[in-house]
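Marked as duplicate of an earlier ticket. Keeping the data here for the record.
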Amino acid sequence: MGITTKTITVCCCDVCGSECVPEDGEVRVQVNSGDRDVGPAHIRGVLVFDQPYGCTSGIVCRPCKLKWLAVYLEREAKTT
């Protein structure tokens, strides 16, 4: 029996504080199926949380991502 040292990394959303996965803020949409030589094309974006004098490039969890994307879409619908 020896000594085992383990590192535990806990990731939390910088918006709401809930535990999440660092990649939860990623948005990836497949736009075509590709062909036999190349795979499908994707549109990819990453939501990050920026707060002046606070957090820069913070992590956004899946529920916050969906909530704030809905707010964004609602605002964009009003301006177009």
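See parent ticket for discussion. Residues 62-79 form the longest helix (18 residues).
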